[in-house]
């Protein structure tokens, strides 16, 4: 089941990059998704994938809310923090985590540290003293 989720993730990325749903592009996308190497075969739990997909669904309205908030109220303060990677994450789930963090307008992942940390840049509203 996890192999299918990785294949679907690769196809979604392909279609987002090409923005073309023609028959030829679908055939090329499936070929590319199948030919890409799989990396180390660590089985991620289906529960983790479903939770990550649920987080993607929640992130979409959050991104719109943050975009309107930035337009209506200035965000002048910024900082860089380290966030811990959830334990037992496969490369596909790490990609989805980075996508979720970067999808919202107030945050972006600057760097993924191999020892299990994301370096995250955030913008915030200035706090009144």
Considering the chains and any ligands shown, give keywords for the structure.
three-stranded antiparallel β-sheet, single chain, 129 residues, alpha+beta
Structure description:
It contains 4 helices and 3 strands; from the N terminus they run αααβαββ. The protein is of the alpha+beta class. The protein has 2 domains: 1-38; 44-129, no CATH class. The protein has a 3-stranded antiparallel β-sheet, covered by helices on one side. Strand 2 and strand 3 (117-124) form a beta hairpin. Helix 1 crosses helix 2 and helix 3 (46-72) runs parallel beside helix 4. The model has no long low-confidence stretch (mean pLDDT 84).
Mean pLDDT: 84
What fraction of residues sit in β-strands?
A: 15-25%
Largest sheet: 3 strands, antiparallel
Structural class of the secondary structure composition?
A: alpha+beta
Count of extended strands: 3
> Order of strands in the sheet with the most strands?
1-3-2
Tally of separate domains? 2
- Can you tell me the overall shape? globular
Q: What are the secondary-structure elements, in order, as H or E?
A: HHHEHEE
User: How many H/I helical runs?
Assistant: 4
Helix percent band: 40-55%
The end-to-end distance, rounded to whole angstroms, is 52 Å
Transmembrane segments: 12-36
Organism: Thermocoleostomius sinensis A174
Keywords: Membrane, Transmembrane, Transmembrane helix
Protein name: Na+/H+ antiporter subunit E
């Amino acid at each position: 089941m996890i192999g299918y989720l990785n294949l679907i993730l690769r196809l979604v990325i392909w279609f987002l990059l090409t923005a073309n749903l023609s028959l030829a592009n679908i055939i090329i996308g499936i070929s590319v998704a199948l030919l890409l190497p799989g990396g180390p075969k660590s089985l991620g739990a289906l529960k983790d994938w479903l939770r990550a997909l649920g987080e993607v669904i929640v992130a979409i309205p959050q991104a719109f809310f943050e975009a309107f908030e930035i337009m209506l109220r200035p965000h002048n303060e910024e900082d860089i923090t380290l966030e811990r990677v959830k334990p037992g994450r496969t490369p596909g789930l790490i990609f989805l985590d980075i996508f979720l963090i970067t999808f919202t307008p107030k945050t972006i992942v600057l760097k993924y540290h191999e020892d299990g940390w994301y370096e995250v840049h955030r913008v915030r509203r200035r706090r009144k003293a």
